C-alpha cells in the first residue's frame, strides 16, 4: 500500500479523485491538502509516495509546490492535473520531473493509465530499497534493535520462517549486456516465495523463504533444477553456492561470508558446479569433483602457479574431510601421486629421499597429519617462480591498471586480463585484491562509475550513450549500478550538478 497526497482547493475535485481510487481498487491510502503550503507541512510529517496536485491554488500554487517538494523529497512521484487552458502553463513543470499530467475533466482511461504507471514506479523503487537494505544486512553486522527493524522492512520474520541464500556466480558479465532472463526461469525451479537481486554484472543472489523444515532431497532437487534453469538462460559456466537454513538475523552475515569464501575455489572447476555450505548436502556431487580437482592441481603445478596449487590443496582436503566417501588408502595414494609430481617439478632426483616421503604419507594417522605432510612437500617449490618477486608483482598490477584504464569501455573480464599478463585467473584475483585492496569487479566498477559521473557533469550525452561509453550495454543495469554507487540515479546526479 502506497500513500498519495491529493492537493486541490476544491473539495469536490478531491472527492472525485478519491472515488476513482476506491472504484478501481488502487493500492493507495489518501491524504488531503487544500493548497501548496498545507501540502508541504503534510509532506514533512507523513510518509508520502505520490503527490497529485492542481496548478492554480491560493497561498502556494501547484508548480511552486512541485519545485519545493522535488528539492526536499527527490524520490517523490508527482502528478499534475489541470484545466485545458492551463496545460501550456503546466509545461514549465517538466523541470521538476513530473511523472504524469491529467487534464480536467479527468478521462477515466487516462486516469487509470497514469496511476498504473506511477504505482509501477513506486513498486520498482520499493523493491530496489528492499534490495539495498538486504545487501546491507548481508555485509554489515547490526545492533539487535536495528537488525529487527530492518528485517521487518524487507518482510523477513524469523519467528515465522527461515531463509536460505543461493549465490550465483557466472564466468563473465551477463546482466549488463542483455535482459536478465533468470527470474522467469527461477519461477519453475523454486516452489517457495523468493527474492532475486543482482549483486554486480556477474553475480546474483536468491533468498528463499521457508515456512517448514527443508528435507535434504527437496534441497538437492532445487539445486539440480536451478542448475538446469540457469544453463537454459545463459550460455555460461557458473557456480552455485547454496547456504544452510538461516534461522536468525545474526546468522546472515557469517553465512554469506562463508558463501563468498566458497567462491574462492571457483577457478578450479571448469564446468558448472553446485556447492552447499552445509557439508551434509550434495556429497555425491562433491565427491565426484575429486578427480577433476586432482587434474587441476597438476595443471597449476605444470604452469608453476604455486598460489593456485596451495588453494587447490586446501580445497582438496576440505572436500575429502566433508565427503566421508573415500578410503584412507585411496586418499594416501592420491597424495603420493601429488607429492611425486611436486618432487619432479622441484627438480629433485634422490629416490631414497622420496621413498621416505611416501612412507611418511602412508604412515599418517589423521587427515590433518596428511595435510601437514603435503604442505611440507609444497615447501620444495618456495622461490621457484617469479610471482614471489615483489617487483614482478608491482609490474603486474601496473599492467593490469593500464589494461583496465584503456579498455573499461568494453566487456573486459578477469579471464581476459589474466591472459594479457600471462598469469592464471586464480593468482591475478588473489594478487589484485592483496595489492589494490579490493576485488577486480569492484575496482572496474569504481573506474566506470567515476567516468560516468564525469560525463554526466561535463557533457550533454544521453544516459544511454554514457552507459555504453563506460562499458554497459544494458542502460537499466547501468542506472541501477550508478544509484547503488553514488546514492542517486544518473538523472538526479546530473540535475544536481547543473
Question: Can you describe what's shown?
Answer:
With 498 residues, this protein is α/β, with parallel strands linked by helices. It has five domains: 123 residues, Response regulator (Rossmann fold); 122 residues, Alpha-Beta Plaits (2-Layer Sandwich), CATH 3.30.70.270; 103 residues, no CATH class; 52 residues; 55 residues, Orthogonal Bundle (Arc Repressor Mutant, subunit A). It has 22 helices and ten strands.
Give a topology summary.
Elements: E1 2-7, H1 11-23, E2 28-33, H2 36-45, E3 50-53, H3 62-72, E4 77-83, H4 87-90, E5 100-104, H5 108-139, H6 144-153, E6 162-170, H7 182-189, E7 194-200, E8 203-210, H8 216-233, E9 238-242, H9 252-262, E10 273-276, H10 283-288, H11 290-302, H12 306-323, H13 328-345, H14 351-363, H15 367-378, H16 390-407, H17 414-420, H18 425-436, H19 440-458, H20 463-469, H21 475-486, H22 490-497
Helix pairs in contact: 2-3, 5-6, 7-8, 11-12, 11-13, 12-15, 13-14, 13-15, 19-21
Shape: elongated
Would you identify the CATH H-level superfamily of the largest domain? Answer: Response regulator
In whole angstroms, the N-to-C terminal distance is: 35 Å
Q: Main beta sheet, described?
A: 5 strands, parallel
Q: Please name the CATH architecture of the largest domain.
A: 3-Layer(aba) Sandwich
Fill in the CATH topology of the largest domain. Rossmann fold
Count structural domains.
5
Class from secondary-structure proportions: alpha/beta
CATH class of the largest domain: Alpha Beta
Helical segment count: 22
From the alpha carbons, calculate the radius of gyration and give it in angstroms.
Answer: 29 Å
Residues in β-strands, percent: 5-15%
Helix content: 55-70%
